Please model this.
Amino acid sequence: MQSLVVAKDLVKIYQAGEVEVKALRGVSFEIDSGQFVSFTGPSGSGKTTLLNLIGSLDVQTSGELIVAGQAANQLNIRQRANFRGNNIGIIFQDFNLIPVLTVRENIEYPLLMVKPTPAAERHKIVSELMEKVGIAEQAEKFPNQISGGQKQRVAIARALSTAPKLVLADEPTANLDKATSTRIIDLMKELKNQLGTSFIFSTHDPRVVSHADVIYVLEDGQLQTPTAENTMGHGGSK
Amino acid sequence: MESARIAFRNLYRQKRRTGLTVSIIAFGVVAVILFSSLAGSFKNMMISQITDSMLGHLQVHRSGYVESLDTMPLNLVIEEQYVDQLKKALGEIKEIEGYTLRILLATLLSNYADTTNIKLSAIDPASEQLVTPLLPGRITQGKFLEKGQILLPNLVARGLELGIASEVVVIATNVDGSVNGTSLVVSGIVETAVGPSGKYGYIHIDDARELLRMESLQVSEVAIRLKDSEKLTLVMNKLQTVLKGITDDKGKPVFEVHPWKALSPFNNIANMIDLMTIFIQVILVTIVLISIMNVMLMAVYERTKEIGTIAAIGTPPSSIMSLFIFEGLFLGIAGAAVGNITGWVLVQAVKAAEMTISFGQSDNILLAPQISLSTMLATTFIVILVTLLGAVEPAYKASQLDPVEALRN
Model:
């Protein structure tokens, strides 16, 4: 089976003023379709940078990265936006819902602005997703009228609305309490099983990490050698 | 449409800022409408004072006459055969309401004790009043002209201590160089259209012909009044086309046609009013441009993370740009609508207040501001165009934001 994500010797160097920051120092890995993958590690270890590269929000300084058969660093800004719209769903730590749109409209947004979809099909997709993530009753509410957990459910539904091959979630539970975090991770895993969509998320919460099929540990911009602790009980862990 | 909906809701979300921006744009539109209508009213009034009491809308002279107008040369008159051809040509243009024949002459005027120079316009009273209907209104004492009478300018009447029914002698040199005189009775005192100065009087055209020993009909100028002054250029072109075919023995055109604008320095004032209106419009454009750019740039800075989000989930840069263009467009439409309505109401209020002004010797001239639909539409078009221009730069800036940097905001 062809890997969904292939990274070889990924290096990302930022220029922060006059200081050169090596955020990733030669990272290599492969992720297959349908996997529930976690990148974990302390703050500043390069998790978000790596997710940004996988999501084609940014391009590597050197190395090779192929996502869904495409090397994003060969695309221009417009092509990268198009690639993300067709292949990748993104869930943010702060939910990042559009405040002037209702729950329904937030989920519908990518089907209007990113991947235009006929109205009937669009309404069907949105309704089904709202049912799946359990926020159908909040459909006409605005983001400031719902809880943090509900916002993240909306964000998940929005990320899945275009039926992407891959969903990226950067610290998806960082702003949620323990119980809600567990429910959100369970929901993501359930959706992964139902839809076959791959999920890659970054987190430093051990409770969240424990749900992953595959766990990668990042430290100081490098992948750590798998340990018994981070592979135990998770088939396919690396 | 989704861009428009989000843009509208973003404006609604920032009610106070949106309201303030719309108010600023509306204020500019109101300023333009009020100034245009009042200045237009003043300009029209001023033009009508000049054309309706002195010049008429158009004048026809013998070729070369206007260049020598100061000396009122009698050797550059329109002879009888050409007058007949001119009358025929004027009769065929339906836009002409009427015309009057004039002889202009430079004379000496005596009260038997003192003598002064005076320029006279010899007129036919009936046709003159048709072409310059405001002329009788300039008579401050006495009545209009009959044969054997003279309308004296106030300056001359005071200088020679002449009053109504005073007898005067007018002395003139005819085209052959012989000096002739005739006695006339003062029928009235007339002010010039723009002030108490000037030494221009009126006598009957038959008296002038006798004074100048003209055996046939000869005239210095023909003043023409149009049914609609807006058709000045059209009629002038028609008349020039017809008259250029009439040539003298040497094959040169007999006539030259001049609009009132070419004969009065007040055209410069009219042009200045137009220039000021344009200046006010430029100020409006600047106000709108700065307001929109300011508001849009603030919106981009405030919503950087939101822009990063929609860019991250795959919204094309062109769609992000359209969001902000729509916001600018809506602000422009709202500002223009509010401004036009408010401006129209204020114009009606000024009209209802029946404000009056003085111009030259005319008092209590009713200020009648009017704003045409075309002016309102043009202002709306300019405002919307400028708001779009003002929104382009911030919109482009938003569309080019790096999603990673924007999300970090």
